Amino acid sequence: MSVGTSASLATVEEGIPTARERRKAGRTTRIRGSRPGFWAYAILGTVFLSAVFPLYWSFIIGSGDSTTLRKPFPWVPGGNFIDNALSVITNPAVNFWPALWNSIYSSFLIAAAVVITSTLAGWAFAKLRFHGGPALLVFVVATMAVPQQLGVVPLYILFSELGWTGQIGAIIIPALTSAFGVFWMTQYLRQAVPDELIEAARVDGASMIRTFWTVGVTAARPAAAMLFLFTFVGAWNNFFWPFIVLDRQNPTLPVALSLLQSNYFVDYSIVLAGVILATIPLLLLFIFAGKQLVSGIMAGAVKG
Amino acid sequence: MSFSQKLSKWDIKFSPYLYISPFFLMFAVVGLFPIGYTAVISFMDWDLVRNSGEFVGFDQYVWILSQPHFWTALRNTFSIFLLSSVPQLILAIFIAAVLDRHIRAKTFWRMSVLVPYVVAPIAVGLIFNAMFADQSGFINGILQAIGLSAVPWHVEPLWSHVAIATMVNYRWTGYNTLILLAAMQAVNRDYYEAATVDGAGPVRQFFAITMPSLKPTLIFVIITSTIGGLQIFDEPRVFDQFGRGGAAQQWLTITLYLYDIGWGQWNFGRAAAMAWILFIIILLIGLVNLVVTRSLVRDEGLHRELTRRQERKLAKTAKQSVKEDQR
């Protein structure tokens, strides 16, 4: 952004001899280039508050007691968050620690597997010529429009035949590959690696796998990191399929959260303490990797 | 031909297939097979005990289409989808246009719009369900504080749709904002300069330059939010503690209904038919979206035939020739 804008500003400045044109150019820079005023920041501030407020609000309720919802809204946290969080953690119906552990390692395995399979396939589609390649890539992209619901009945039958319902493997296995991931890596590698580089490696006598390893994997790293992040967040937040195939003893965090509310009596301070507890890991991830997540979305959009 | 040459030739010929095979093997087992098998099951009266079925033709489809619940669910899904995607896209374009300007601390603002994206839909559902509580909720509290009457969020169908759409908007507006922002930044800034010289104001520039340039991205965003919106499950599932779409199916959606048929009533034949009906609806709406978006957003004269550098160079020489003419 900044590169493009400053370059065009430079061209404007070079070509303005008269005061009238300078005024016009001033208008240009005011519209697109100059620092926007109060209203832009007021709008962004409002957006920021509406993004953060629901989380803050649930922390307030989650740190109060069961009457907090009925009182006038307190605005400052109460002192009960630890107690409420403990009653979520120790509630035998929720299975909090197994759920947390299941979410962590299943999301990690899924993201790692998607990155590996997508990088391999993306490299082949982007940089290797083979019979049927373009058609297969179109096929991969087309499958992205297929809803998850179209596969759940046979998958459930399959996993119950295998005796895997209730096992965390039943949510890992179907998620090991991703059509989006293949598309993402193909798009990235296509423009990130010049063909000359591959030819040079081939002329030097490198095998295909060696070329992939030295040239492909090295070039793919930034895109692979982003794909890992997106897949991790997606797997962590996924609900529909885990809710169907996992049982109450061995849930993931979203499944455990949904159980919190299904009791006959709903105590929102405990439900929302659980929500905050389950959201903290991903918020931490976001604080460390949010910049990459943002640039990943922006990069994917330009190329996609 | 020596052995190593032969080996190298084989390497070139078969390596690509080797590299794509993990994806396609997995996809065949957990993607392709289930899709096909869903079609087979949808023509059967599935027996859970024997785990096999009896062929019944289109009976399951006929059964679903004759259920009043299905039509309620269809109406609800569309209502929630429209209430979420339309305001969400308008908001996203608006926020992206603000972010597209030379703001300070732009990384901070970009990150802040993305915060809701990492919050699980179930968590968003639980938070907003509590905020929208009919008796004691924060939203009704505010409405009453400013002199309005409390809204029956969990009773009236339309209000429940508004509440659920709010959850969807909360989670996805920032994500779409960033996608649209990326598209805006790819627009050649020279267009805006030229438009300013021609006397077009910011609003006119937005509709004449920015919007047409956003077209491919808008189509992408609309299609993906359609696919996602028509499958909505998580948020309505936790909108009350029973998870069945409300006492009078006020917020029963197609996927909630599918779940209930499959894992509430344990009828897999009907659930499979329901899944295919959902898929056909998504395809149809996707096509309609494509046609409508194409005709609504014009793109005259904005096909990029030159690279950005070429465009910039041309603009520069044009400006210089104008300058020389004036001398």
Count of strand segments of chain A: 0
Shape of chain B: flat
Q: Per the principal axes of the C-alpha atoms, what is the gross shape of chain A?
A: globular
Largest interface: A-B, 117 and 117 residues
Query: How big is the Rg of chain A?
Result: 26 Å
Average pLDDT of chain B, rounded to a whole number, is 88
Going by helix content, strand content and strand pairing, the class of chain B is mainly alpha
Strand fraction of chain A equals under 5%
Query: What is the rounded distance between the termini of chain A?
Result: 18 Å
Major sheet of chain B, described briefly?
2 strands, antiparallel
| Percent of sequence in beta strands of chain B | under 5%
Subcellular location (chain B): Cell membrane
InterPro entries (chain B): ABC_transporter_permease (IPR051393), MetI-like (IPR000515), MetI-like_sf (IPR035906)
Main location (chain B): membrane
Family (chain B): Belongs to the binding-protein-dependent transport system permease family.
Task: Please explain how this structure is put together.
The complex is a heterodimer of chains A (304) and B (327). Chain A is mostly helical and 304 residues long. Helices cover 74% and strands 0% of the residues of chain A. Chain A has helices spanning 2-14, 19-33, 38-62, 81-90, 96-127, 133-142, 149-161, 169-172, 179-192, 195-203, 208-237, 240-245, 253-261, 268-303. The longest helix of chain A is centred in the C-terminal third of the chain and has 36 residues, at 268-303. The radius of gyration of chain A is 26 Å and the shape is globular. Chain A starts with a helix and ends with a helix. In chain B, strand 1 and strand 2 (52-55) form a beta hairpin. The termini of chain B are far apart. Chain B has a two-stranded antiparallel ribbon with strand order 1-2. Chain B has 13 helices and 2 strands; from the N terminus they run H-E-E-H-H-H-H-H-H-H-H-H-H-H-H. In chain B, helix 2 packs across helix 12, helix 7 packs across helix 9 (202-230) and helix 9 (202-230) packs antiparallel against helix 12 (268-296). Chain B has 327 residues and is an all-alpha fold.
